[in-house]
Design goal:
With 351 residues, this protein is α+β, with helices and mostly antiparallel strands. 21% of the residues lie in helices and 36% in strands. It contains 8 helices and 22 strands. α2 (99-105) packs parallel to α4 (139-151). It is globular and about 75 Å long. It starts with a strand and ends with a strand. The structure holds adenosine-5'-diphosphate and magnesium ion.
Length: 351
Amino acid sequence: MSGDPMLSCRDLSKSYGPVRALEGVSLAAERGAILAILGPSGCGKTTLLRLLAGLETPDEGSIHIGDRLVDGPGAHVPPERRRVGMVFQHYALFPHLSAAENVAFGLPRATEGDRRVQAMLGLVGLSALGHRLPHELSGGQQQRVALARALAPQPELLLLDEPFSNLDARMRVTVREEVREIIRATGTTALFVTHDQEEALFIGDEVAVLNGGRLEQLDAPATLFHRPRTRFVAEFLGQTGFLPARVTEGGLNTELGPLAQRVDLPPGEEVDLLVRPDDLSLAEDALGSARVYRRVFQGMHLLYRVRLPSGRKLDVLAPHTQFIAEGAPVRVWLNPGHALAGFWRGEALGG
Ligand code: ADP
Ligand code: MG
């Protein structure tokens, strides 16, 4: 990455006994950016945050925060001297302290009446509720108190570990918008850990995908979604189907017909195209060779799972007005409006 990174780590590895929790992870976050760390449970997300916070020491590799080497050969800066703030899965508020007292706890010598405490409560929209105890606040409000407490000492780096996993689905959407605004308003560089791809794409300026302790890809959300470099990333982000295709002189040939997309391979080579539900269309057709295998009503859309003559199943997105019975014959065609990503012998097409 270019520019002026606030965080950069190089070749970080960490094992717990025989478990390789992180292996050779290098990444950077620009000053003021939000970097989402995305991956399935157990892939090493929390381990990465604990290393950055200084709560664990890496076996190998180095960490720079700003211009400071905080971990590396001969260096280990303790957590309290890293200027790193943390927000956890469980809010970890002190249950016997008010919201304001919880925020003040992060500041040396501050009391709940201090200007800075009041300013932080204002920032997270809780000025009127500073006197309340944690159990007198909703889950979303508690998470905002935790955020105010972490931001109060003006950390250089804010680490958030699945902060919304205790909230219900509707609340998560509201709170993630609020939290992104608050982080933006303070200009703090943040790493946001989640296993939820939608959350990562929403909140991250860039997203780093971890799998089994390794970094698979770090890119802007749209790049990651449309140009995944590995099958893992392709499958982890969105409802992804694969469609085999053969390279021809004019483009590609698939079970769904030809596709005028050029690839840099000799005719006859086999590739696997990545097709998402919105890349496909369907129409009821007595002569159609595909069949509706299942129909899922999603409110705004209908999602059809169709079975092609080969037996391959693909998901097709349709408007909620296009109602077709399960079992009906349909014609299915590719309608992506952009070049499809794909893989050739495990390598992503086009770089
Ligand atoms: P995530 O946060 O992505 O779910 P973690 O970083 O918590 O993943 O864990 C990565 C791997 O390291 C997992 O296999 C986990 O069981 C293991 N692990 C994490 N912490 C410890 C520990 N203190 N002792 C032993 N194994 C651990
Ligand atoms: Mg975790």
